[in-house]
Amino acid sequence: MTQDIIQRGLYYEEFVVDARYLHRPGRTATEADNVLFTTLTMNTQALHLDAAFADAQEPFHARLMNSMWTLSTMVGASVAQLTQGTLVAQLGLGDITFPKPLFAGDTLYTESIVLEKRLSSSRPGQGIVRIAHTGRNQDDTVVATATRSVLVRTLPEGTPAQ
């Protein structure tokens, strides 16, 4: 008889403080990603939509990827490995920076470090984990950082940790 194995994120007990997770594969940004995300979110910034305008602007002379796309993709890259099926709620994002731009054609690679964790004092069977996400391009240049606090489930009774 075969054993069913379901891909999932980590339960509270499985998060290790100071552990670093490298989320692969990376995601190559495209012009279509930029235009679609920018228009879906009603962001009319010409630096994302207007090639002629962006080409004339110092210092980059090119359209920039929407920074919210970069943030969303960076966090999204961590889901399968960290929170898929174990997340109760995202509690907050903070310390968000975009030290360098991302451009169409760049590949975004994400890593996450578990900063701290604690059991919830008001929600039995759940814990709070704070995670630092870093996004780098193909040249290893940091293009985005953020911290995220999540509420995750603890291991179900009798379930062994992975």
UniProtKB/TrEMBL annotation:
The identity of this protein, by name, is Acyl dehydratase
Q: SUPFAM superfamilies this protein is in?
A: Thioesterase/thiol ester dehydrase-isomerase
Which InterPro entries does this chain map to?
HotDog_dom_sf (IPR029069), MaoC-like_dom (IPR002539), MCH/BMMD (IPR052342)
Gene3D superfamilies registered for this protein in UniProt: Hotdog Thioesterase
Q: Which domain of life is it from?
A: Bacteria
Family affiliation: Belongs to the enoyl-CoA hydratase/isomerase family.
Could you tell me which residue ranges the MaoC-like domain spans?
Answer: 17-130
* Coiled-coil stretches: none
